[in-house]
Amino acid sequence: MLENTLPQHTVRYLNQVLGEDAVRVTSGDQIAPLPYFLQDTYQVLSGKLMGQPVTLACVKRSQPVSAQQVGQHAKQLRELLHAPVIVALTEIAPGERKQLIQHGIAFVVPDRQLFAPQMGIILNERFGAEPRRKQAMASPATQALLIWFLKHHPVSQTWHPFEEAAVLGYAGMTATRAVRELVQFNLFELEVRGRAKHLKLLGTRRELWKKVKPHLRSPVLRTLWTYDQRILEVSGVRWAGESALARLTLLNEPRQPVIAMTAEAAQQAGQAGIFFEPREIADGVAVQVWRYTPAMHAKEKGVDSLSLWLSLQDDRDDRIQMALDDIEEKFPW
């Protein structure tokens, strides 16, 4: 049975507008061969829509993706699963909707819109009519930009986050969503200068960190293990977990080295012949796959200290909690 999430809402909506039992979802056994970054970004359902094979790619709430990425991912899924792909989204901005339509990318926003021209289906219902719900947790892109701000910007400056978004590899639409979230959380005040959007911090940097922590999550999406020491040479890899904590505090080095990388970097490492194990192995390297880049600064060999704090905040080891307190105390607020 599907969970009460986007996949369930999508199937319910399609059956509502196209007729009862228009969608029949089959077993997800064939999903295993998909690349990690696709599994991390989408919950993929295979089945039939009005008797024809179809793949529903439901974007996971923690994974913001641009219209360009959606198009690339849909093409890859179509080639891997040999069926038309409909991308399901919880919400979509007008600019993103326009881009998807212009490129003929099939998508569905439950209770609002269905665009699948390849299957002869185009429906537009109450798009934008419902008020935007407040978001409880920051998206990975917003979290990354906020941490970048705390690392690089003094409180006396107003902040134009679009430049930093480009440095971190995010598109303008993603930066726009991040600005919306940061204002929604009452962390910044929006200042519009012509066509440019700037943010002014409300309060001190330390107050910002205290206020935003309930909205932030661990950057670690999953942990894999490998014996292959070449993993330490992959571009963008940083020391993480207890390995990074040992380099910042008096904590001892862990028995297993811990590193962090993006899902894309892990995929490339796998293509280069580095084999990953899904469960912990003795004498191997623990590889954390992060929701956003762990390489916040080219000169640093470890992950940034605030993301490190978030990744370990739920660890019950008293030694680690004392080390995390030390990190917070020493951060240049």
What would you note in describing this structure?
This protein has 333 residues and is of the alpha+beta class. The chain has three domains: 6-124, Trna Endonuclease, Chain: A, domain 1 (3-Layer(aba) Sandwich), CATH 3.40.1350; 140-215, Winged helix-like DNA-binding domain superfamily/Winged helix DNA-binding domain (Arc Repressor Mutant, subunit A, Orthogonal Bundle), CATH 1.10.10.10; 220-330, no CATH class. The protein has helices spanning 6-18, 36-41, 67-81, 94-102, 140-152, 161-167, 172-184, 205-212, 241-248, 263-271, 305-312, 318-330; strands at residues 23-25, 42-49, 52-59, 85-88, 107-109, 113-116, 121-124, 188-193, 196-201, 220-226, 238-239, 258-262, 285-290. A seven-stranded mixed beta sheet has the order 1-2-3-4-5-6-7, sandwiched between helices. It has a four-stranded mixed beta sheet with strand order 10-13-12-11. 38% of the residues are buried. Residues 126-133 have low confidence and may be disordered.
List the defining traits of the structure above.
single chain; 333 residues; alpha+beta; Trna Endonuclease, Chain: A, domain 1; Arc Repressor Mutant, subunit A; 3 domains; seven-stranded mixed sheet; four-stranded mixed sheet; 13 strands; globular
CATH secondary-structure class of the largest domain: Alpha Beta
Major beta sheet, strand line-up: 1-2-3-4-5-6-7
| CATH-derived topology of the largest domain | Trna Endonuclease, Chain: A, domain 1
User: So, CATH architecture of the largest domain?
Assistant: 3-Layer(aba) Sandwich
- Content-based structural category: alpha+beta
Largest sheet: 7 strands, mixed
Number of strands: 13
The figure for the number of domains is 3
Helical content, roughly? 25-40%
Task: Indicate the overall shape.
Answer: globular
Number of helices: 12
The value of Rg in angstroms is 21 Å
